[in-house]
Specification:
It is built from eleven helices and 20 strands. By secondary structure, it is of the alpha+beta class. Strands 1, 2, 3, 4, 5, 8, 9 and 12 form an eight-stranded antiparallel beta sheet that branches. A two-stranded antiparallel ribbon has the order 6-7. Helix 4 packs antiparallel against helix 5 and helix 6 runs antiparallel to helix 10. The protein starts with a helix and ends in a 9-residue tail after the last strand. The relative contact order is 0.11.
Length: 380
């Protein structure tokens, strides 16, 4: 799924385009005890309550693909009877009207979702009458191709709000406020089936994680049965290791800066594309070659790539590039510069000692105090 398809689905969680048919919920305490359950037709909820659920649903499809949102495919064995995909497909086809299936779903989540506090499992069924699309990419509302039926699961922490004082209108007094248990924004969730190419893809799902880390390995591996991709942080660390080991002693300042600049150019060139920029093994190799890495250093790249990452590993360019600022770090000093001003920094050997030089022709501040660069004779 790409960002256009996600945007299209998020519009379904509004009063004007609501496609949610049923909602189920299960409130679980820290000891994994079920405290209460919900099962209703969604449109039977109070309007104010619906708006709050809409916000949770949209949050479960929000974030950056490859950082908060991950396209995942089911292994073939999970599509057999008793597999995770087969179970979710039965649950979707039931339209959340089979109470036994719903209870089994809750039990499976509680077994595999590791969370030390209270949380609320929300599960909805939706039916989207997908409009046709003309050659100018405008929707044709009265030319529906098919109905996309889906499940969306949101797992939200439930926390006690902070104590404090409040004003009681009825008694006209300031008094101690009663603390309530608040359902917060979702930490984890998934959409099944995926909405790939504006069509139902029962072989895939979209997984959501708020913090960008894929820490719920049991939930991903056992409950969903999907291959766990590298998180954004792991992608960046793996890419950095790959660069360092490929370049080895030729990992100098200018080559690394070239790699970063070429990455940013690639992202800029394709910023209007709905699909994120993804680098596989060959594209990473091409990036290095275009950044000045010698053929000699790239001779063993394929083997090195498999050792550091994996043959099928790919990197989201947005996860490994530095689009906001470059950070140049020594044990004692950290320099941050925007990519557009990277030319202000250069390296030079002076009296046999390597230096990082920063052009200081413009205004300079030290702790907010404006200083003037010292005048002196230019270096010979």
């Amino acid at each position: 799924m790409n960002k256009k398809e996600l945007s299209e689905l998020k519009k379904l969680f509004t009063p004007a385009h609501c496609a949610v048919t049923r909602i189920c919920g299960c409130y679980v305490d820290a000891e994994k005890n079920v405290k209460t359950k919900l099962k209703e037709a969604f449109l039977s909820l109070e309007e104010e309550e619906m708006f709050k659920y809409f916000k949770i649903f949209r949050s479960t499809l929000s974030g950056t693909i490859g950082k908060n949102l991950f396209n995942m495919e089911f292994p073939l064995e999970q599509e057999q009877e008793g597999g995770t995909q087969e179970f979710l497909l039965r649950l979707r086809n039931s339209q959340l009207k089979d109470e036994e299936l719903i209870d089994t779903f809750y039990q499976k989540v509680m077994e595999d979702y590791l969370y030390p506090e209270n949380y609320y499992i929300i599960l909805i069924h939706g039916a989207y009458d997908v409009p046709g699309r003309a050659s100018d990419q405008l929707d044709i509302e009265d030319a529906s191709d098919y109905v996309y039926e889906f499940l969306l699961c949101s797992i939200c922490p439930v926390k006690l709000d902070k104590p404090g004082l409040c004003y009681n209108v009825s008694s006209n007094t300031i008094e101690n406020r009663v603390q309530d248990w608040i359902v917060e924004a979702p930490e984890t969730g998934f959409l099944f089936p995926a909405f790939n190419d504006r069509n139902t893809d029962i072989h895939s799902l979209m997984y959501f994680t708020k913090n960008g880390e894929l820490s719920q390995s049991e939930f991903l591996d056992h409950f969903l049965g999907c291959h766990i991709p590298l998180s954004a942080k792991s992608q960046k660390e793996t890419f950095q290791t790959l660069i360092e080991e490929t370049l080895d002693r030729s990992c100098d300042f200018s080559t690394v800066m070239n790699i970063q600049e070429n990455l940013n150019e690639l992202i800029e060139e394709r910023k209007e594309d709905p699909e994120p920029v993804v680098l596989d093994k060959q594209e990473v190799k091409r990036l290095l070659a275009n950044s000045g890495v010698s053929d000699e250093r790239l001779e063993d790249f394929d083997t090195l790539y498999e050792n550091v990452a994996d043959e099928k590993t790919s990197f989201m360019a947005s996860n490994v590039a530095s689009t906001r600022s470059y950070e140049i770090k020594t044990p004692d000093v950290v320099i941050k510069v925007s990519p557009e001003k990277a030319q202000l920094i250069e390296t030079r050997i002076i009296d046999g000692i390597p230096y990082i030089l920063i052009e200081a022709a413009d205004e300079v501040e030290i702790n907010g105090i404006v200083v003037r660069p010292a005048s002196g004779q230019p270096e010979a």
